[in-house]
Each structure stands twice: as structure tokens, then as C-alpha cells.
Amino acid sequence: MKIKKQNIQSSVRDGFSLTIPLLLLIPALLFSNPLYGILGENNYVTIHLILEIFIIIASFTIAIQAWLIFPYIFSNHRLYIGALFLSVGLLTLIHTLSYKGMPFFIKDSSAYSATWFYMIGRLTQALGLLLILTSKPKKIHFIQRRITYSLACLYTFVWIFLIYSPYELLPHLVIEGVGTTPLKNSLQYLAIMLQCLILLYLWRNFNKDRRQNTVIIVASVYLILGDLMFTTYQSVYDIKNFMGHFFQLSGFYFLMRTFYSTSVEKPFQSLIETQKQLKKSEESLHYMAYHDELTELPNSRFLTEKLSIELSMPKTKKAILMIEIDRLKSINESLGHSFIDLMLQEVATRLRTSLPPDLFISQIGRGEFTILLHSVKDHEDVVQVCKQIQKGMKEPFQLQHFLLNITLNIGIAVYPKHGTNQEELLKHAQVAMHEAQKATERYVFYHSKMGQQLIERLVLEQDLHYALDNGEIYLEYQPQINLRTGSIDSVEALVRWQHPEKGLISPAAFIPIAEETGLIVPIGEWVLETACRQAKQWHNEGISHIGVAVNLSTGQFFQQNLVEMVEDILARTNLPPHYLELEITESMTVDTNHMTEILHDLKQLGVKIAVDDFGTGYSSMYYLKKFPIDCLKIDRSFVRNVQSNHHDDVLISMMISMAKHLELKVVAEGVEETGQLSFLADRDCDIIQGYLFSKPIDPEELSANFDTIQKKVLSITQLKEVV
To answer: If both were cysteines, with which of 241, 292, 316, 517 could 363 make a disulfide (CB 3.0 to 4.6 Å apart)?
Structure first.
């Protein structure tokens, strides 16, 4: 912007320079008296010498600059202009030395030699500049610099030889006491014509380089005015002759400025602009290196440096809050990266707006943030910040056409109690953050036992990698009872892990680990194939009507080859598809486009689809009519409070009624009491499962005691009628 302003100012100055010749023409037109009448005849040669010296300096300056710059640009235009003005400078030098009144140089000074050297120099400059401007610019070899400058010198020496020949080979151009001859005027007009052609060319190509073309136009106007002066003077002491030299000097000055602008000033300005851009780029790169591109919050590198500075200050109590978005992985698998990006931006915005501006907020990972409290007095100060954060996240997030409630898990480490260096503080805050998932308040202060729990979890994660290959993973099956017939129509396959050292590991402990590490995909495929193979085995044993329900994890559902994998397993196990029921969770139904496509593909295989844990997820009823769903499973948390919580009674009644209207079957989980059974039967629930009939058992026990379990089911269902 600054360079552009400078260019505008320069153009204004050059435009103003065009008005000066008009003002200088006034004395030349009004006064025809000899100049010595003003300055003295004896001083005129000195005045002429001074003017010509400046012209010579301008010419040699252009030539020297072109010589020095050529090795860096290899431009034919720059080289030819340099050689042209070398020749013009030499001719002007000889013209000055041979001017009337100058000391002896080769021959006595005379108007003959001086005028011819001037005229040849003037025509050389005009014709040469025209040819160079109209020629095509190109790169040329370095060796041409010496050749071109040598030819310029040779050209000059040829004219020196011709003009200084013992015999006057050329006609006189000026007659003393009379003035210029017609030949002199004709040559001068030829120079004017060549200069006008230059003006015409520059005008037609003005927009190519406004700055350079403006200066050359100004120079051309001065040179044309000088030519006009040289066609009308009668004596070398005439003021018009003086003005002609002055205009010529002005023209050469602007030509020198043109070359200086393109060869020195313009590259220098470009260098300055490049340096500014480089500085901006460095600042931008520095910003990018220390900030997250998506949220524009400081990143982990920035946090590390900030903590280093903070911990080097006087020993004031500080706190680090490490925050994660709960169930981010599941949301990401359901909604996709673009929705997660919007959510992260909104979370960052709410953190900034809900907290005091002096707190240092950073993002250290996708969905993980940290807040540095520079000074805290006690735990209550930290708790208040945690509550402010939770308050800021209370309102649902509007992400395109989805409305999501987001929960944050906050881990807290206090300096110096929980660590004296940044590595310890960050590690302990992260450990506390993972523990916060289990806390009601969703924020937890670090304590030493958490470290051991984390180590145990890491060990468990490593053991889980080998559990499947070592045969430690197995399935148990819980019967599902048809309330209309009192028969066991199907079973739900439930995965178990028998650790060789720790014993039975709860699914609540290892399933989240499997989902985080991606092990849920191979484990889920094994579960599906094992359950289908077991159902087929029961058919072969005579229990031909029994089906099997298998849970699909979020990771499984969003794998690309899910449909092909299910089809392949059904083919390998030879199980008819209608005996397999796949259970999905409500959280999977958010991405409706992907869900619709996958579910329809699965239905084409002939399998059944059930929604597990209904009522605990996103509570969107839209998918119930859009997706090809066969069954709803009411979560055990609702069934547990039946007949003791009026609200749960109403909710279950509504769920069953809604399912009936949509022609969906209803399965109630967690039935443990006959009162719960009676309540569900009265509401026309289709299928129930729970400890009232049978706990999950291994397949051999189910095979061996199937009839016994069936009798127990019949007796209980008859008992509920009495109740």
C-alpha cells in the first residue's frame, strides 16, 4: 500500500514536470537577445560546459548502471540502453570538447565539429531508444555485454574519424552569424519525428508500465522542446540555444530517472515489499505454529512455553484444567468430521465468552482444551471456574439441523501440590480428566491413586490386544421371553472377558477400551460370527425356532464393509437371516443419510433391526418412521423404577403405545420382579428379558437346561396372571 502511494506521488510529480517546460518557454519566446546580455559573453562557454557535463554524467550513469545490473537480469533491453547511452555520452563528450571557445582537442574547436557531434548523438539517442522500446524483450548471454559495449565504442570512433577527417566530408550545419542550415533543421526535425514516434508507442502501451512510461514521456517532451529551440537560434550565444541545452539536460535527467527507477528504485521497492510480505508470512507462520487453525486458540506448543514462564515466576498457587468433550468419538462416528469441526469452534467460542479474559485457554488436541489459572487461593476458586464452564455449555449446540447437548469432563491439577513442573501438571490433569467421566459433577481434582488406576487401565488395554487370540473372550446368552406364548423365542448374545490373572472383567470396563483402541471391530466381528454359529448349532440340536440378538458398536456400524461382513458370516454359518437381530443404539441414528442406506442394505439381507437402550440417547422420533426398524428395546433404567416412579410408568406406557402404532415390537430389559412383569404385560409389551427368568448363561448350560428354563418361564408368566 505504501509503495502504491509512492508511485502515485511520483506520477503526480512527473505530471507536474510537464508544466515546467511551458513556463520556461516564456523567456525563450519573449527574449531573442543574446544570452550574454544577461550573463556575459565570456561566461557562456562555462555555462554550456556545465550543462553538457551534466548530460554526460546522466549518459554515463545509465551506461554504468546497465553494465553493473546486466549480470543479474540478462535483459537485452537493459544492455542495449546501456550501450546506447555509452555511445551518446562519448559523442556528447566530444561535442563538448570541440565546442567553440573550448581548448584545442585533436583540431581547433569549431561549430562544424561541435554541431555534427551533437546532431549524431541526438539522432543516435532518438533512433536507438525507439528501436529498443519496440523490440521484443528477451534474455541474452552474459558474453554479449562486452560485445555490445565494444560495438558502441566502435560506432563512436567511426564518427570521430569522419568528423575529424582532414577533409570536411560532411556539410556545415550552422553558419556563423546566420544560424542553422536547412540540413541542420531537417535533421533536428527528424529527431523530433523519432521522438514523437516514441511518444506514440508509449501512449499506446501506457498501461503496461504506467510509472516508467510517464517518465519517458516527460523526457521526450523536454527533448522535443530542445530540438525546436535548436532549429531557431541564430547564434551560439542566443538564449534559445541556451534553452535548447537546458531542455536537453532535463530530458536526459528524466531518462536517467527512468533507468534508475526500473533498475534500482523499483527492485529496491520490490525488495522492501518482499521483506514486508516475508515478515507477514513469518508472523503468519508463527501464529499458525502456536495456534490451532480451526479454533484459533493457542496450541500445545504455546501452552508449553506459557507454562514454562508461569512456573518460573514466584511460587503462587496455580491450576491447570484439562477438558475433553464427552463421547466425542461416538459423536464423530455418528455425525462426521464437518459437524465435529463446527462443534469445536462453538465450544472454543463459549469458553472464551464465559470465562474471564485473563485466563489462558488453549487447545492441545482434537476435542481437548486446557485452561491455566494464573493464581488461585483455594479449591473453591477452581470449582467456581468449572461451574462457569459448565454453565456456558448448558444450552444445546445448534449444528446445522441438529440440536446436541454436550458434556465436558474436567480434570484439575494444582501447582505445586500436584506437580512442580509442566510435565507432571499436564499428565496429572489428564489423568483426572479421564476420571471425571465417572464423577457426577464432571470435574475432579487429581489425587495420587489416580495414577495407579491409569497404569492398571493401560495394562488392561495391552492385555485386551491378546485376549481374543488367547481365547479369553467368550459369549453368554440371556433368554428373551415372548409374553404372548410364554416361550423363549430368542437370546441376546453378551460378550465376556475372563482375564487369566484378574478374573472376570466387566464389559463396562473393557468395552470402552475396545472402542477407543479400535479393537471393538475385530471383537465385534468375532461376537457376530460366534453367535450365528451357536444359533445354527441350537437349530441342529432341535431348538429350531430360536433366534439371536447381537449388539453392533458404533465403530462396527460405521465401518465400510459392514453389510458385506454380515452377509459373509451368515453364509459361512449357514444361519437363515431372519434368525439374526442386530441391535443399534440411538446415538447411531443422528447421521440419517448414512443410517438409512446401511439399514436398508441390512434389511435386504433379511436380518431384523432393533434399537437398544431406547429413550436414553438423542430422543429423536424421526428415525422410527424413516428407518426400517423392527423392534424397540426399553432400557433397564426405566424398567427398574416401574410402580415406584410415576414418571417412568408414564414414559414406558407412551413408548409401548407409540411402538404399537408404528407396528414395532417392544422388548423390555432388566425385568427382575413379578410386579414389573405384570405392569409390562398389562401394557401389551411383546418380549421381556431379565434375571426374573434367567441370568446370562453359557451356551452349553442353555442347551442342557433349555426345557427347565422354559418351564420356569411358563410358571412365572402364569403367576403374573394371578398377581
So the answer is: 292
Neighbours of 582 (CB within 10 A): 23
SS3 (DSSP) at 438: helix
Amino acid at 514: A
Residue 66: closest CA among 56, 55, 57, 75: 75
- In contact, 231 and 185? CB cutoff 8 Å: yes
pLDDT tier, 625 (very low <50, low <70, confident <90, very high otherwise): confident
Q: Say how many Å lie between the first and final Cα of the chain, rounded.
A: 89
**How far apart (Å, rounded) are the C-alpha atoms in residues 364 and 302?**
9
State the virtual CA torsion across 638, 644, 648, 650 in degrees, nearest 10: 140
Q: Which three cell numbers stand for residue 720?
A: 403374573
CA 431, CA 433: separation in Å to the nearest integer? 5
Q: Which residue in this structure is represented by grid cell 558502441?
A: 152
List, in sequence order, every residue forming a beta bridge with 320; answer none if it has no partner. 372, 413
Cβ atoms < 10 Å from Cβ of 349: 14
Residue 267's pLDDT band, with cuts at 50, 70 and 90, is low
CA separation for the pair 228, 245 (Å, rounded): 11
Query: What gap in Å lies between CA 242 and CA 236, rounded to an integer?
Result: 8
Tell me: the pLDDT tens digits for 665-714? 999 999 988 888 888 888 889 999 999 889 999 999 988 888 888 888 88
699, 465 contact by CB (below 8 A): no
Omega before 21 within 30 of 0, i.e. cis: no
Looking at 147-156, 342-351, 539-548, 556-565, which range is the least confident one?
556-565
Rounded-to-10 torsion of CA 427, 428, 434, 439:
-170
- Return the pLDDT at 2: 43
What are residue 225's phi and psi, to 5 degrees?
A: -65, -40
pLDDT score for 571: 94
Determine contact, residues 672/691, Cβ cutoff 8 Å. Answer: yes
Backbone angles phi, psi at 21, to 5 degrees: -55, -35
Q: Where are the alpha helices (DSSP H) in 205-361?
A: 210-230, 239-260, 266-290, 300-311, 328-335, 337-354
Residues in the chain: 723
Query: Rounded to the nearest 5 degrees, what angle is found at the Cα of 182, between the Cα atoms of 181 and 183?
Result: 90
DSSP string, 366-430: TTEEEEEES--SSHHHHHHHHHHHHHHT-SPEEETTEEE---EEEEEEEETTT-SSHHHHHHHHH
Going by the DSSP 8-state scheme, the letter that residue 263 receives in this structure is I
Cβ-based neighbour number of residue 150 at 10 Å: 11
Bridge-based pairing state of the strands 408-415 and 318-325 = antiparallel
Tell me the per-residue pLDDT of 294-328, one tens digit each, with 9 for 90 and over: 888 998 888 888 888 888 876 788 899 999 988 78
Per-residue pLDDT reduced to its tens digit, 49-107: 888 888 898 889 888 888 887 777 777 888 888 899 899 999 989 988 887 777 777 77
For residue range 508-525, list pLDDT tens digits in order: 888 888 888 888 889 999
The span from the CA of 8 to the CA of 660, in Å, is 80
Instruction: Find all residues with CB under 8 Å of 501, minimum gap 6, and list them.
Output: none
